[in-house]
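Minutes, project check-in
Item: structure for the 164-residue chain
Input as provided by the requester:
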Amino acid sequence: MAKTEAKTTDKDAAPKKRGRKWIVLAVLGVAVLGAGGGGAWWWLGRDAGTAEAAKPASARPPVFMNLEPFTVNLAEEDGEHYLQMSVIYQVADEKTVDTLKAYLPVIRNRILLLLSSKKPSDLASAQGKAKLVEELTVAVRESVPGTTPERGVVQAYLGAFVIQ
C-alpha cells in the first residue's frame, strides 16, 4: 500500500506543476500584451499631439482680395485686340488687405501697364497665362513698401480672362 500512496501523491503533484506553468505563461502573456499596447498608445498619442498642434495653423481659412476687372488694349499684333480680366490675390491676413487697399492706385497702375504691354500671342498658351500670374504677383509685391519680398502677398489668381 505504500507504493499506491506514493503513486497517488506523484500524480497529484504533476498537475500542480503543470497548472503553475500555465499561470506563469498567462501572466507573462498579459504583461507582454500590456507593454505592447502601452507602447502603441504612447507612440500614436505622440503623433496625434503633433498633428493637433499643427492643425490650428492650417485650419485658418485663406484670405483673398478681389480687384475690379481690367479692360486693356493689347500690344498690336495683326489687328487690334483687347483683354478683359479680373485678378484675385491671396494674402497673409486682413492687415495685408488693408495695406493693399491703401496702395490700390499704385497697384492698378502697375497692372494696367503690365497688361497693355502684352501681345495676344503672349497670353494665348497656358504657359503664357502662368507667366502672367507670376508677373501679377511680383507687380503687387513691388507696389507695397516693406522689408520682406512677399509683403504679405501669397499668390495671384485669374478670376476671368477674355481676349478679343
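Outcome recorded: The chain is about 65% helix and 20% strand.
No further action items on this chain.
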